[in-house]
């Protein structure tokens, strides 16, 4: 066992865990006040559901012995057959470290879709959809791309850390779900501004940080590949942030904070499949292109009329495609070229078609059985109150001045604003 | 009695409160308000989607005063609320028929 590699992969797994709460904040700040908590919970619930499914059968279906290039078997269901002494086939690290690392990927992938469905789905139905999706879409696709015997891996499609398996997959899954669930009430009519942009930036920063674990950790070793990947992650992200801001300044007249946060995520998405196969200049190109193309692509929903609320399609699907396709040409060491590009396109569009079809069917199934869409009254009043019996902020306090001594007598007792009276509900 | 109502910039609230206190006004009521005047609103852009924000946030300050103070107090509030820039708001006064202090039942100017 290699101690350095093991330590690196374990710490990377911890980094990737932080991405899901980071995503929760990134999305949570972008929705309106009335569904801020629901947005956080839609990501957070994935940490619960997928962690359980992963040990029950997820790891085994994804990385268990291959069946026809399509899916693993159930040899490792319940993590049976894996002990603390089991090492990965390459010999470097305990299998359990790899199980943990990949678990965090499986947690993050379905959570990415939640932003598209903001404000309007019942929480229980989302949890069910998430469990079905990760089982029938994510586990197979991750097997195709990364597992020994997976057909895209055998084809030598480059997807180092999951541009295809995670981002194209979740992006198109989100599109399918949105087409089933429908638009938010008031889409394009009511103002739907982000309620807390500092929270969005905080979320983007946590994602950026965690993404070093996601990308560099995928080397599964503390080596030159990990270093290349980490460096290229930073280069592409910075370039995409700049690209997005440049597009916005020219097109809309301002450098927006939301644009900066979005550009960073677009760059991170695009470099994810590609970063270990390109040099620094290649990473720069991927970043700039991702920033420009994604900032344009987020406007498509208005032209085409689908309500992808927080632009999961525009950022993750489009960004994933940018990285997955560009690496076909930009890969170094004589790999890049028309042949590799063809493989990349085949991989990307196979996943796109499979994920769209199965995600659409699963969303329809949930819609037809337990109902996916929230009641219109609940949606209008806010899903926070409807499904969580909470509101994110207390707006009852008004008045008061800050940091100035009024010079008058101290306020009489009982004149301070009282907290609003909470009504206890005994169910 | 008169009711003086001032719709002002939120940032001027402290100035106005201070000026009223200095004048000897005992109490006031402040509410969050939104509105526009000749300046209209402004436009914000989120991922390329433009939102026209035409209700600008304001504070609405209400003070009940004896008739003889009303004229002077309007000037005091206007002075304190003024920044000289567009969107400073409006101040007006209307007659009030009656006022009662809830705790004691005092009526008219005694209730102020």
Automatic annotation (TrEMBL), chain A:
Top-level taxonomic group: Bacteria
Q: Where is the composition biased (Low complexity)?
A: 413-427
Q: Which residues form the Ammonium transporter AmtB-like domain?
A: 7-393
Gene Ontology annotations for the cellular component aspect, listed alphabetically: plasma membrane
**GO molecular-function term, one example from the UniProt record:** ammonium channel activity
Residues of the region (Disordered) are: 397-427
SUPFAM superfamilies xrefs:
Ammonium transporter
Report the leader peptide range.
none
Could you tell me the membrane topology recorded for this protein?
Multi-pass membrane protein
Please give the chief subcellular localization of this protein.
membrane
Question: Which residue windows are transmembrane per the record?
Answer: 6-27, 39-57, 92-113, 125-146, 166-185, 197-214, 226-247, 254-274, 280-300, 312-332, 344-363
Compartment(s): Cell membrane
- Keywords of this entry: Ammonia transport, Cell membrane, Membrane, Transmembrane, Transmembrane helix, Transport
Any Pfam family from its record, for instance, is Ammonium_transp
The family note in this entry says: Belongs to the ammonia transporter channel (TC 1.A.11.2) family.
- What does the subunit comment say? Homotrimer.
Q: What does this protein do?
A: Involved in the uptake of ammonium/ammonia (NH(4)(+)/NH(3)).
What protein name applies here? Answer: Ammonium transporter
Annotated organism of origin? Streptomyces reniochalinae
TrEMBL record, chain B:
Keywords noted in UniProt? Nucleotide-binding, Phosphoprotein, Transcription, Transcription regulation
Q: Which residues carry this modification: O-UMP-tyrosine?
A: 51
Instruction: Cite a single GO MF annotation.
Output: ATP binding
Q: Does the keyword Transcription apply?
A: yes
| GO term, biological process aspect, one | regulation of nitrogen utilization
Q: Highest taxon of the source?
A: Bacteria
Checking Pfam families in the record gives: P-II (PF00543)
What InterPro entries does the database record attribute to this sequence?
Answer: N-reg_PII (IPR002187), N-reg_PII-like_a/b (IPR011322), N-reg_PII/ATP_PRibTrfase_C (IPR015867), N-reg_PII_urydylation_site (IPR002332)
Q: Which GO terms describe its cellular component?
A: cytosol
SUPFAM superfamilies, A to Z: GlnB-like
Could you give the subunit structure recorded for this chain? Homotrimer.
- Protein name per the record: Nitrogen regulatory protein P-II
The upper taxonomy is: Bacteria, Bacillati, Actinomycetota, Actinomycetes, Kitasatosporales
